[in-house]
Amino acid sequence: MFKLKIERPRNAKNDILSGLTVALALVPEAVAFSFVAKVDPVIGLYAAFMMGLITAIFGGRPGMISGATGAVAVIFAPLMLGLYGENVDTETATGYLFSAVILMGILQMLFGFFKLGKFIRLVPHPVMLGFVNGLAIIIFKSQFEMFYVGHGEEAHLLNPAALGIMGGMIALTMAISFFLPKLTKAVPATLMGIVTVTIISIVLKKFGIHESRNVLDFVQGMDPTKETIAAGFPTFAFPHMPLTWANIKMILPYSALAAAVGLIESLMTLTLVDEITETRGRGNKECIGQGLANLVNGFFGGMGGCAMIGQSMINIRGGGRGRTSGISAALFLLAILLFAAPLVEIIPLAALVGVMFMVVIGTFEWSSFRLVGSIPKMDLFIIVLVSVVTVLHDLAIAVLVGIVVSALGFAWQHGKKIHANIKTDEHGTKVYHLESALFFGSAQSFKDLFDPLNDPQDVVIDFENARVYDHSAIEAINNITERYADQGKSLHLLNLSPECLELMEKADNIIEVSVIEGLDWHIADDRLD
């Protein structure tokens, strides 16, 4: 039912109209993330504009949308809370934030200049599936905030009548988004859904039937002092932070973590858009574009950010493929802040929730369910693990955990299989040339290689191309030694390390032991500590 590839013609009209849809969806999220980071909503809106514009021009992935994100906001929130706790005034506190964003941008640009972005291609596919599914669940969960009135502990669920009408508007937005493309692709279905539901909410309000919660209500629910989302053009200023080594050391951990999280989320989103559009973005160029955008953010009063998978999916679904889509989204957002705030403020939240629910449906990898029983259990475990960690903790941590577990699983699967080149020489001696690591995972496979009952009188085990790692490996060698001794056969062990010989308990049963002197391979065994 749902295809990963989203087919849309690439042209300027689709880019511009899709960019308008994205701009409308950016407003409430930028406001929400501003409050997460403990800053004025204007700072989040400025960040969304600057991140979107600069990455669209200089980034490595046309059609991908960047802006103020929750992943980055969560990292900078403790910095702001700590400063407020020390009774630092708001202007100085935001100065530290802007300085941290500048440093974040520099670190990301260095990552791109050293061409390290290519390593995102090493992320295993199960990790990618888990990342996508986890993000879809996060986006889905985040929308339930729209069903509540108030903020924090004072928030309460809408009354049943209002909840029912809002649910109907959400369903209508989703229906238009799903069915309209089957009739025409002249305009983005998501934009048409927003416009239609907005008109309906105006009519319901005019006749006194129902007053839907809109974007301005959401902003005022976060900050009752806000009367509008309108703002002026961002201006250049040096951050209000004394440039001392102590201050740099204070903001460096936040900047480094935000840089890492931002790049991981951006590069993972880039990979997803690559798969959807069947094109290829440039990871290193995207790192430089993200870094430049954050650098500019710090000097022009933005909170920084990274690529946004939700808005990127809205853009792709709306037909946005080129850089024009990201540029137009940023410019439309700026126009909203400068001139059209009243028009956006009346958009009902139900319309935006409906759009985001369609993003969830398009983002979640429904094919994951079909993979159960048809892929290795380790891959299935990684998909679930990354999804759960993404939801419960952090996107970057989830990806790192997935990569580590994938690497360990790969090492286990390949390490437990021991290989040997077996031949019989002209004297009738059977020679086992081992070519693998011998450790707890491969100990049983090692013992299964040998046939003491049917082997000839003389048997050679050559460890020249093998390595003995731990106590389990030593015990496996001792076991084989004893089995050949029970059959009264001669066993020759060649090219062992000195530590192996020291730990051998059945050496009396071996006819010949050859040791490679100076070999510094160490064995994990308590008797050597």
Question: Key features?
Answer:
11 strands; two-stranded antiparallel ribbon; 529 residues; single chain; disordered N terminus; alpha/beta
Summarize the structure.
By secondary structure, the chain is α/β, with parallel strands linked by helices. It contains 19 helices and eleven strands.
Write a structural description.
- This protein is an alpha/beta fold.
- The strands form 4 sheets. A 5-stranded mixed beta sheet has the order 5-6-8-10-11. A two-stranded antiparallel ribbon has the order 1-4. Strands 2-3 form a two-stranded antiparallel ribbon.
- It is 60% helix and 7% strand.
What is the string of SSEs from the N terminus onward?
HHEHHHEEHHHHHEHHHHHHEEEHEEHEHE
Structural class comes to alpha/beta
Report the total helices. 19
Largest sheet: 5 strands, mixed
- Give the helix level as a range of percent: 55-70%
Strand content: 5-15%
Average pLDDT, to the nearest integer? 84
DSSP strand count: 11
Reading side by side through the largest sheet, how are the strands ordered?
5-6-8-10-11
Query: From the alpha-carbon coordinates, what is the Rg to the nearest angstrom?
Result: 30 Å
| Gross geometry | elongated
Span between termini: 60 Å
Low-pLDDT windows of residues: 1-6
